[in-house]
Amino acid sequence: MNNKPTSQFIINSVAPIRICDNGGWTDTWFAEHGKIFNIGVYPYAEVQIAVYHAAEVENRIVINAENYGERYVVDPELHSSQHGWNRHPLLEAAIEYMRIPHNLAFEVTIYSEAPAGASTGTSAAVTVALIGALDSLTPGRMALHEVALAAQKVETELLGQQCGIQDQLCSAYGGINYIEMHAYPHAAVSQIQVPNATWWELERRLALVFLGKSHHSSQTHEMVIRDMENAGPDNAQLQALRTTAPRARDALYAADFESLGRSMIDNTEAQRQLHPDLVGPDADRIIEIAREHGALGWKVNGAGGDGGSLTLLCGPRSDAKRAMLRAIESENPRYQHIPIYLSRFGLRVWKQETA
Question: Does residue 16 have a cis peptide bond before it, meaning omega lies within 30 degrees of 0?
Fold first, then answer.
């Protein structure tokens, strides 16, 4: 937008990423029904939309993907579900899905401090934040559940990707969630309310470690999906994953961190049973270091596989946690501790007047 005028107004939105997804894999189409426990945390995905009168600017839609250093014009006539996406299909598909009135022009700036491919639902958080912000430019308002469902549809229906439902729900609702999917993709979200002391203690004990390389869907995941589809929704492997979510929920209500840690470990081992490559050698080395420093639990985030991240649940001593993180980062220069804070809120959207 060269020589663009001052925007009419700015829409801001943020949405948290997700960690510690006990019961992951059971929120999918082939599982049919599932139980998932997850936690929304900072760092947020951030979206800012500067809105203009379409008649006053040269280019109606501009995307500024700040993490990638890319700012470019989107032409709906060329970049669409009919003609193929351009540089960032997820962003472009979400914009097409929301059908913004043609009398409005806008520049979307998107940023996240969470590394791409960290298996923490960053793409879901970005899509939820983007759809939530764009919703402010259309008639009516979407409920949080509707925003999450729309974000999931963008990935599965418009882009044809394999995608469960839990990441979008966690980004929309924030906080600590127990999700019961009774029939894919329909689910009920129960937010876990605990005393402040439990909340603060959980936050203090948790750590997120990035393995230093992005996780990507792989042939391993496709093979697991084929095996699960053939085995049916009630096979023993999916059932083992489902049991870890209510255990995590009940442990947190009781402020029983040892039981919470065991549920995380059991979930990681259940992931390994789906396929040994879902818990890679980098994850195993970090788990070994965490165990040596008295950690109570570890969860390979997301579906697992090469790359991604782990959620670690530490014991009562803060100095032991810090020593563990120093040992992990000194073990391999790729390993990175990502500071996190529990997010009491999910999607937040607000308007900023510029006139």
Answer: no
C-alpha–C-alpha distance, residues 170 and 303, integer Å: 16
Q: What pLDDT was estimated at residue 210?
A: 97
Q: How many CB atoms lie within 10 A of CB 229?
A: 13
How far apart CA 311 and CA 34 sit, in angstroms, is: 21
Q: Which helix (H) or strand (E) holds 131?
A: helix 122-135
Q: For residue 248, give every residue at least 6 positions away whose Cβ sits within 8 Å of its Cβ, in sequence order, or none.
A: 20, 22, 37, 260, 263, 264
With contact defined as beta carbons under 8 Å apart, do 246 and 194 qualify? Answer: no
CA atoms within 13 A on the CB side of 51: 22
Other Cβ atoms less than 10 A from the Cβ of 280: the count is 19
217-222: long-range contacts (C-beta < 8 A, 24 or more apart)? 217/161, 217/162, 217/303, 218/305, 218/306, 220/275, 220/277, 220/278, 220/305, 221/162, 221/303, 221/305, 222/162
pTM, 2 dp: 0.94
Alpha-carbon distance of 34 to 243, in angstroms, equals 9
What is the distance between the alpha carbons of residues 169 and 148, in angstroms, rounded to a whole number?
5
At residue 1 the predicted structure's pLDDT band, cuts being 50, 70 and 90, is: very low
**What is the tens place of the pLDDT at every residue in 240-249?**
999 999 999 9
pLDDT band at 75 (very low <50, low <70, confident <90, very high): confident
Residue-wise pLDDT for 145-203, tens only, equals: 999 999 999 999 999 888 899 999 999 999 999 999 999 999 999 999 999 999 999 99
Strand partners, 110: 47, 65
pLDDT in the model for residue 79: 64
Q: Looking at residue 84, what DSSP letter applies?
A: B
Query: Cβ of 14: how many Cβ atoms within 10 Å?
Result: 26
